[in-house]
């Protein structure tokens, strides 16, 4: 399976790298944080200076030049497109359908108090059941649609107070 990653360097250059590209890379681990990389007959000395696993952000020194690198996989990009950002301080007040589908079950009703990761509803899309979980603590203000309702991508599903 070929997984793709969105890579942003110094918050201005953006490109896509696949797991196949990474496998084809000729690299040797020198020590815990340093690597020697050979690409198109050009040698690179790379060292990881700092890393923040939760933010998927790294400071890398390549041939005596420092770069800030942010890496997102498909799941990170989906989470961001849904408006959920891990560790973000913004408060999510609405949950919208991430894709067109059919609501199989709704586990909450207006007035219910929920906590983070409480199952809110199950959305069937592309023959897969997707559990939509609460991104925050709060009280449910409204639930749009019910069991058996078809929804389009971006359609409001649940609203918080």
UniProtKB/TrEMBL annotation:
Sequence ranges assigned to domain Lipoyl-binding in this UniProt record: 83-161
Assigned keywords, A-Z: Biotin
The keyword Electron transport belongs to this UniProt entry's keyword annotation: no
Signal peptide start-end: none
CDD domains: biotinyl_domain
One matching Pfam family: Biotin_lipoyl
PANTHER family named among the record's database cross-references: OXALOACETATE DECARBOXYLASE ALPHA CHAIN (PTHR45266)
Name the record gives this protein: Acetyl-CoA carboxylase biotin carboxyl carrier protein subunit
Organism per entry: Mesoflavibacter zeaxanthinifaciens subsp. sabulilitoris
